[in-house]
């Protein structure tokens, strides 16, 4: 059985701020217990790092990927490799949001699932993105 990490643990671990809370986070994350991170926690962590700590987007992606590559860290209900691929969609620019990238990963993990989005820039590699309502025969 794996335990879940929340945003505060990830933010403290990745920023080292404040040091006493970062140390507690490091003891947990760097330990040998199997831990899981949800898509919501990943998105929220990226938001806090960007908006509060002013961390550049590429550094956020690199930090999250390094964390997720740890042997004891897994992803909840999504394949880790899909989450890592989703984060790479966010790295080059602000074109793909962290939330859209993780939704893309969720769609990739559900064969045949489509994503309805009004965002014309929604990532579509390997999934179907629908920009209009389905039509019903009369």
Give an account of the 3D structure.
The chain has helices at 7-15, 19-29, 39-51, 57-68, 80-90, 98-108, and strands at 3-4, 35-37, 73-75, 114-116, 128-130. The protein has a three-stranded parallel β-sheet with strand order 1-2-3. It has 138 residues and is mainly alpha-helical. The mean pLDDT is 95. The protein is globular and about 60 Å long. It has a single domain, classed as Rossmann fold, CATH 3.40.50. 49% of the residues lie in helices and 10% in strands.
* Average pLDDT over all residues: 95
Strand sequence of the main sheet, in spatial order?
A: 1-2-3
| Head-to-tail CA distance between termini | 51 Å
Strand % is 5-15%
- Examine the secondary-structure arrangement and name the CATH architecture: 3-Layer(aba) Sandwich
